[in-house]
Amino acid sequence: MAAGGTVLPFVRGIDLTKNDFKDTGIPRSIKEMSSLRWLRVNSAGIDDVPEEIANLQKLEHLSLKNNNIEKLYGAVTSLPCLRSLNVRHNKLQKTGVPKDLFQMDDLTTLDFSHNKLTEIPEGLEEAKSLLVLNLSDNMIEEIPAQVFVNCTDLLYLNVGDNNLETFPPQIRRLVHLQTLILNNNPLTHFQFRQLPSLVALQTLHMRATQRSPSNLPANIEALTNLADVDLSHNDLQKIPDCIFTLRNIKRLNMSDNSISEISGSIDTWSKLEVLNMCRNNLTALPSQICKLESLRRLMVNENQLDFEGIPSGIGKMVALEVFSAAHNRLEMIPEGLCRCPNLKKLILNSNRLVTLPETIHCINETLEQLELADNPEMVWPPKPRGMAQGSGVAFYNIDFSLQAQLRNAGAQAAQLAATLAQQQGTPKDPIARKKRLRQFRKDQKDQQDDKQEKILKGMKEIAKDEEKQKQKDKMTEERSQEVKTQKRWDEALERPPLNYQEFFDEDVGQIPGITIWEIENFLPNQIEESVYGKFYEGDCYIVLKTEMDDSQNLEWKIFFWIGEKSTLDKKACSAIHAVNLRNYLGAQGRTHREEQGDESDDFLDLFDHDITYIEGGRTASGFFTVEEMDYPVRLYRIFPTHTGIHLETVACCVESLDPRHVFLLDDGKVIYVWQGSKAKKTVTTKTRLCAEKMSKEERKNLSEIHTLVQGKEHPEWPQFWQALGLDEGEEEEVELEEHVDPSFTPVVPRLYQVGLGMGYLELPQVEIPEGKLVQKLLRTKNVYILDCYCDVFVWIGRKSTRLVRAAALKLSQELLKMILRPDHAATTLVKEGTEPQVFKTKFTGWTDVIDVDFTRTADSVRKTGANLKDWCAKQETKVDLSALFTPRQQPMSLEEAQQCMDEWNDDLDSMDAFVLEGKKFVKLPENELGHFYSGECYVFLCRYWVPGEPPEDDKEEETEPEDDFQCVVYFWQGRQASNMGWLTFTFSLQKKFEALFGDKLEVSRMHQQQEVVKFMAHFKRKFVIHSGRRRQDRQQAKPEEEEKPAEPKPSDQRPMRPKPKPRPPPPVEEPPKPKPELFHMRSNGSPLFTRCIQIEPNAASLNSEFCYILKVPFGQDDDSGIVYVWLGEKSDEEEGRLAEETAQEMYDPEKYSLQVVREGEEPENFFWIGIGGRKAYDKDAAYMRHTRLFRCSNEKGYFAVSEKCSDFCQDDLADDDTMILDDGANVFLWLGSKASDVEIKLALKSAQVYVQNLRVKQPELPRKLLCTFKGKESKKFTRCFHGWGEFKTTRE
């Protein structure tokens, strides 16, 4: 170790990715790491190359990705051993790359991708030792020929996404090149005649490089190693002939071309595994494709394939795993496709499917993904008769235990089930069969009784004689065996059913030598070889001697050494685990006990030197000790998260308190939960629960917990202020300020794994999937450092070695000092199995609650005497409840939604709107765009811009490509509208559109509140749905106007005139009488799904987290009134602004005055009168953050639960299914009126498992399971649906 106790000179590699060094720069202590071999400073916000790395003379690999570096001058060129340099995603220009960089002898890897280079850096041709060169995603227009003259050892070359128009012919010198990527370059004049010279080439990507048969070689048969080719986006009319000469090709991408036919020579690709022909003009696949036995993925999306275009022999492709043919013209698929034994993904959405082969039921269990959406005429095929049997007892064949369902949700699909044979002939009558069987037995009984009795009697006598003789022979044999051989001492012993791999490694005892374990916390822990022969007097050890006998078989000798001052638990565990080691290895010898000072000669001969005794004990006892623990005083600021709370360490002083937050003060035996005057009580409850876990798991339930609320009296206030450093009486002068930034977000933790080798240390970062720390990342053999900025945790695995632990403690201290941190930052040692609650909160889903086994019962099976477990294993029926255990979909932010709306609206060229009036569609007035009525049908013709492809002919290269377009017709049907509108559209307007636009037309039918997200984006969150029908007053006036000219003609009708006149006034005057209108604005899961729906005017419908629009008319005429925009106290400001703008556009400002009213400031005169009087209403909408809707159905042939999207509505409640609704406080089981009894039973069990799982995962939100029926829903149920009303009834 270096002077001063530092370990920095021994560090060989360190990863400082995602640290913020923008203002402070990288730590200066980096220059002390003189042995550093690799360094990563990615995404650190630095602008220049750190000067500190100039002292790292042994540095070989340097990564500076995702920064703002403009120049590489200085420290980089002073690194003599540099081998690889990665500076992708920076701001480098040609002048910022020094020429001296390329004169380094050992430089083999350069990555300059995603920068601002317009030319090749000067001097690059001098880097003759380069093996990997990446210049992609720049603005380079030309590559000097001298680069390929000198850099002939290149193995990887990527110059994609540049502005290259040609390529140096000297590329033929790169005979060792294995990967060449030229994507997205206008290489029109590049003939590529040199391609056959690249004999070592394995990967060739030329996407969007204007390839054609004329600028490709005629034969590339010499490229025997070429396995990956990408020629997509080149407007090719056919697959080039030279591609068929590749015998070893494995992956071919020909998507986004104009290929209309595949040659029959495809059978030459015997090793092809992936074929991508998407977005071409294929009408059929050649029959020779069935000979490709190695093909695993076949993708032909967006072509013109029909049923006859798919070969019937496709079932011969035994290796096929993925078949994707979406957006084609398939009416059916060959039956052979469903017989591919390894098929896992079948994608057939947006076709013309009518049905599927019945064999689809045979592979339904092995399929991981089956997509059949947008096939409106498809009918699911019936099950074969043999498969339909047994559905009545499916409930008893499913294990609904929580453990089993969690295991099934994470397990992969089962293997392909054997095909069930279809029953032949008519089914037999079981009752008639029983009658015939009884009659037959009765007739034969008399004849066989006598014979059977005689035969049985004789057989019994013979069996008795044989049994006696066998017993005599057995006793004689056993006696003689005891005399001949003596029984081993351990033959009668039975090994306990233990998993020995929990104690010892898999390769233990497989290599001759000595292995030693020490006993710590009841478990053996392997120690380093350097400390062999040094024993602590207070510890116990297990010593294993492995050697080879004369016949080259392994032999083992096992000793357990006991120190004279060791505790009882260590003595017992050393003896127990010594026996466990013998059982694990299958050793024949006994275990030998060795005591300190009385060791045997065999034990002493194991070591080359004398053994040494060390005073004291190194390991901890497994018994609880009575010594007092010293807990440092720590103060944590609490931040709520989606799954719990986050504890942010702050300075332990009064100035850290903020009235808007909750704080936890840990004073050892006393834990205070401080709630600010403006803090949420829910956060306080979660913090209190966290404090209780800390007391129970870390303090043996000895800590007192006190909840202190700002401004309320409590006897523990003096002790609280004293713990924060205040003297008595000083708390009266304290004035707490709101100093915490509202936009503050906790620092993302970084997890390091400590690596130890022969004389060096490494500190790489662990890759965190999806940016979420999970417990399974921590492996028991390793030691990790978790850097949370204010807290640095050192996690020690049970099976980690002693030297790694010591090195991790040193590295954590260096890491704490290396980065600029606040004074209250500290290092905490954490051992596996004893993690504190503060450490667990950094991980997602870390819970110590034991999963409850919710095993079902089957008394009817048990009464038969059968083994219940064996019966369930044989009779288990497939069930899919995985959706119940998936996390809730995260809501989309407003920025992401705005970006999606901008992208979709940029592609929109025009939109024409029509509405159904009578029996025809008429143009929708401009002022009604964005306003929908639940009793109407609308048609929207949207024309989208599609960028054109550049022309293939070289002569026309100067002309700009013509833009293309695509038309999508959206048909919108209200909840109260009849299907006549859809029929009218299909027979009138749709045919006109098809004649105008042909294949470029796409029709999408939508129902109210089930709109396509792209369609809703066009209205920019101003989507208003009115109740009833539009312009009712005008439509009622038309028949009156038509009757007036007909009245004077017939004279006999004159006496009838006075009769109808007194009758019409009452009905005509009542409907137009203006009534108050109330609109509710709400977003479901995403701002893209924002709607303003009219509901019944009722004060009980208000909620403090939403915005409402209330129209109150004056008098009898609808020509004056007032419009209120009611903003809830907890509503979003952006939604409030949107509601105000929507109200201004809905009503004429000359007739209606607009007034914005905040909750609690409502005027007494018109507002409450218009809404029907004051009533109690909800003050929050916490259910919006928890609502989930699941559908339980048996339509797939087995019981499955699927989750609806976050934008669900009332119409998603299918009448023939059962639904599960979770609102965070209750779980409702909704029963449709046509749901079957089997589905109801299975849905009930599924809901119980779901509730049980939530009680484990979210103990702070206990759910109650409630049952509700269609038409009898409570307000707690209906409030989860936007615009709840009467159930949909379709008028025919």
UniProtKB/TrEMBL annotation:
InterPro entries assigned to the protein according to its UniProt record, in alphabetical order: ADF-H/Gelsolin-like_dom_sf, Gelsolin-like_dom, Leu-rich_rpt, Leu-rich_rpt_typical-subtyp, LRR_dom_sf, Villin/Gelsolin
Cellular-component GO terms for this entry: actin cytoskeleton; cytoplasm; nucleus
Keywords recorded for this protein, A-Z: Leucine-rich repeat, Repeat
Keyword Mitochondrion: no
Residue stretches of biased makeup (Basic and acidic residues): 1033-1055, 1070-1080
GO biological process: actin filament severing; actin polymerization or depolymerization; barbed-end actin filament capping; myofibril assembly
A UniProt-annotated Pfam family: LRR_8
Segments forming domain Gelsolin-like: 529-604, 648-716, 766-839, 1097-1166, 1203-1260
Top-rank lineage group of the source organism: Eukaryota
Molecular-function annotations in GO: actin filament binding; phosphatidylinositol-4,5-bisphosphate binding
Region Disordered: start-end pairs: 460-487, 1027-1081
Protein name: Flightless-I
Source organism: Penaeus vannamei (Whiteleg shrimp)
